[in-house]
Design brief:
- Keywords: Membrane, Transmembrane, Transmembrane helix.
- It contains 17 helices and ten strands.
- The protein is of the alpha+beta class.
- The strands form three sheets. A five-stranded mixed beta sheet has the order 3-7-5-10-9, sandwiched between helices. A three-stranded antiparallel beta sheet has the order 6-4-8, covered by helices on one side. Strands 1-2 form a two-stranded antiparallel sheet.
- Strand 1 and strand 2 form a beta hairpin.
- Helix 4 packs parallel to helix 7, helix 8 runs parallel beside helix 13 and helix 12 packs antiparallel against helix 13.
- The chain is globular, with a radius of gyration of 29 Å.
């Protein structure tokens, strides 16, 4: 069986870890140091010493320079690490623990730490080769490169001082999450799906009825159960289709990335049961990756939850920051608008011969709206600034809706927010909010009328 998913998950975990980039830079510094020292023993080193603008270093001077560089670099590396920990602690307190992944994977922090560690190791590599006994050897090229790296380190330190406060600014935090959400919407719901549409000439069975059939006929269906507990981080759909085709199965997925499973909880149902051998069960289980943390790679809800978490903390009684909540609502609307403007991919996956192999859980526009706006409305309903902006963004979102069902979902969120705000806002504030809500409902009504006229 192919091992694409485990390898891909391992590569993602390593690539986004805090230690990966600094480790690569440290190894590169050691190799570069050895190469520079070797070049100093070749004619290239002699040519460098003959440059008119370069003043050769003596052994004692070279040792002093390299010792100063190495000592200062390791000191600054410790300071950089400490500042990063403080920034992470602040982010976890202000924005929630889910945001930690974003800061740990920040390339700016990783490159900064790696620069100082690499310069330190490079200086040590060169320092050990200087001697002034019977024969004097000073690797002039290598010493010059150490001074260049020290100058680059100063530039990186200046960048780091600018980058840290910028990276923990709430607008930048929300923007990083929001842009990732918009990109994820584009990948999950591409324009022009290559899967079989629901209104094909030969319609496939309804998703809900398929699940009911599977659950109601236990003798015909085998459950593919988890053998470890944790969050589903990813699943390999192509491998699921190939496995189902290889064993001539139809697989109905019950869990998707972001769901929690415990040992014995079913991932999926496969039919017919008599074809679900031990090898088939193992192959289907290996199409899932389970870990301790939710990840944003295939989990749209994780990104939405991050924005909701920030908005909820901003609207807590101890903070009461409606403008941070507005920023999160803006990006929730951007993600929903991206989804509204695209065609939903079919929940059915076919093999190369057009045979149904996998039935996916459906992700609807209403689910996304409820996960985002439905979750955040209870936090913004007591504040006029945040609630009014939510109504404004919902009205704007209605202009991107392509179907009547999407417009009904938007109107449902408006009605839900107004129902909560009625009991939490003062009469004057609620009257102002209600006026905007009525305008939004009228705009949605006109859009529904236009679609009804077009259909007629």
């Amino acid at each position: 069986m192919k091992m694409r998913l485990p390898i891909l998950q391992f590569w993602r975990a390593v690539r986004w870890s805090y230690w990966f980039v600094p480790s690569l830079m440290a190894i590169g510094a050691i190799l570069l140091g050895a190469t520079a020292i070797w070049l100093d023993t070749t004619p290239a080193g002699e040519l460098f010493e003959k440059l008119s603008w370069y003043q050769k270093s003596k052994p004692e001077g070279a040792r002093s320079v390299l010792s100063a560089i190495a000592g200062s670099m390791i000191t600054v590396a410790g300071v950089v690490f400490s500042i990063t920990i403080v920034a992470i602690s602040y982010a976890a307190t202000q924005y929630g623990p889910r945001i930690l992944t974003n800061f740990m994977s920040d390339r700016g922090n990783q490159v900064t730490l790696g620069t100082f560690i690499a310069t330190f190791l490079y200086s040590l590599m060169v320092l050990r080769t200087i001697y002034d006994g019977d024969t004097i050897f000073v690797p002039q090229l290598a010493v010059f490169l150490a001074m260049v790296f020290a100058a680059c380190s100063i530039a990186v330190l200046i960048y780091f001082v600018h980058h840290v406060p910028e990276s923990i600014h709430v607008n930048h935090v929300a923007a990083r999450i929001g842009r990732r959400l918009v990109r994820a919407m584009g990948k999950t719901f591409p324009a022009g799906s290559d899967h079989l549409p629901d209104d094909d000439d030969k319609p496939l069975p309804d998703f809900d009825s398929e699940i009911e059939r599977f659950l109601g006929r236990g003798d015909d269906v085998a459950a593919v159960r988890a053998q470890e507990s944790g969050y589903i981080q990813a699943m390999d759909i192509d491998e699921l289709v190939e496995t189902a085709c290889r064993h001539d199965l139809v697989v109905c997925l019950l869990r998707t990335p972001g769901d929690f499973v415990y040992s014995g909880r079913p991932y999926a149902l496969a039919a017919p049961a008599d074809r679900v051998s031990e090898d088939a069960d193992r192959a289907l289980r290996h199409c899932y990756s389970v870990g301790n943390l939710r990840t944003p790679f295939q989990d749209l809800h994780f990104l939405i939850d991050e924005l909701v978490d920030i908005a909820a903390r901003a609207m807590s009684s101890g903070v009461n920051d409606p403008f941070t909540a507005r920023t999160c609502i803006d990006w929730l609307a951007a993600g929903a608008a991206e989804m509204a403007g695209r065609e939903a991919a079919s929940r059915y996956r076919l093999d190369a011969e057009g045979v149904l192999r996998v039935i996916m859980p459906e992700v609807t526009f209403g689910d996304v709206m409820q996960r985002g706006f439905g979750a955040v409305r209870s936090y913004v309903a007591h504040d006029l600034i945040a609630a009014d902006h939510t109504i404004v963004m919902l009205a704007s979102l209605s202009g991107r809706c392509r179907t009547g069902d999407q417009l009904q979902c938007v109107r449902y969120q408006v009605d839900g927010l107004m129902e909560l705000a009625k009991d939490k806002l003062a009469a004057e504030e609620f009257a102002r909010l209600d006026a905007n809500a009525r305008d939004c409902r009228r705009a949605i009504g006109r859009a529904l009328d236009r679609r009804a006229d077009a259909a007629a």
